[in-house]
Structures are given as C-alpha cells and as structure tokens.
C-alpha cells in the first residue's frame, strides 16, 4: 500500500513538472499562473430545428420552429436573425435578453418575447450557473436565409 502512495506522489509531482515546463519562460520568472489556465470560455447554446416548412400562402417565406438549449451559465454571441420575425418562449429556466437600443430584460418559464426583422440581439444568456434553460423559438424568414448571423 505504501508503494502505491509513493507512486501516486511521484506521478503527481511529475505531472506538475511537465505542466510547468510547458508554460512560457516569463511565467516561471514572475511566478504568475497563465491567464488561460485560470479562465474558461462560457458555454454556448445549441439550436435543434423541429419543423421547417415553406409557408404555402406567403411566397418566399419559411416557418421554422426550434428548441434552443442553454447549459448553465451559457451565453449566445451577439447576433441577428437576418430579416426573420422571431418569437421566443421560455420552456425552462430563466433567460436574460437584450435587443439593440433596449434595456436588458429577464424572462422566466412561461414568458416570451418577439424580435422584429433585422433586430440586433446584443445579449441572450441563461442567468443560472447551475440549471439549464430552454427556449422554443419560431422564425418566419425568407426562404434560404440563415437563421442566425453572428455579429463580428
């Protein structure tokens, strides 16, 4: 048993040595931990289309419904939905949303919002760091247009 403890100790020491030897030399001298080692990117959302169908009585328009899952602490990048009219309904959790030129608002399960064509979606985030959030999103878009266009 003591041999196992000693081996685990040597293994841990070896791993720490390898990790330190991979850091840039300036980090060794300053004694600071590299920023990349202590920060992480926030998770993002996943959009899963449920139904996509041309609208028979409105030429050139498509109806798309989707479920958008936001893991804990997830945030979408600022984006637009092209010329789509968007309806979002909170199925689960609590979301914070902000459109360009408007204040941020918090939406709870059962609440909804709409986005006019061309709206700039500055902020969309799950407010919880421990619970997932889920949206039902409906798009009325020009047939063939991308549903989400990230702003650069």
TrEMBL record:
InterPro entries from the UniProt entry: Cupin_2, RmlC-like_jellyroll, RmlC_Cupin_sf
- Asked whether the UniProt record includes Magnesium among its keywords, one would answer no
Protein keywords:
Signal
Q: Report the residue ranges that make up the Cupin type-2 domain in this protein.
A: 67-139
**Does this entry carry the keyword Signal?**
yes
Signal peptide location: 1-21
Q: Which PANTHER family match?
A: CUPIN DOMAIN PROTEIN (AFU_ORTHOLOGUE AFUA_3G13620)
Name under which the protein is recorded: Cupin domain-containing protein
Its taxonomic placement starts with: Bacteria, Bacillati, Actinomycetota, Actinomycetes, Kitasatosporales
């Amino acid at each position: 048993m003591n041999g196992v403890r000693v081996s685990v100790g040597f293994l841990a020491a070896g791993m720490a040595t390898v990790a330190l030897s991979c850091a840039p030399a300036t980090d060794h001298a300053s004694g600071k931990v590299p920023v990349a080692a202590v920060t992480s990117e926030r998770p993002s959302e996943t959009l899963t289309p449920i139904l996509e169908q041309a609208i028979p009585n409105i030429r050139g328009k498509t109806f798309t419904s989707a479920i958008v899952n936001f893991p804990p602490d997830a945030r979408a990048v600022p984006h637009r939905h092209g010329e789509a009219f968007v309806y979002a309904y909170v199925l689960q959790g609590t979301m914070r949303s902000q459109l360009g030129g408007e204040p941020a608002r918090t939406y709870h399960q059962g609440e909804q919002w709409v986005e006019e064509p061309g709206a700039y979606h500055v902020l969309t985030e799950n407010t919880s760091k421990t619970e997932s959030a889920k949206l039902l999103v409906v798009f009325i878009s020009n047939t063939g247009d991308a549903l989400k266009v990230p702003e650069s």
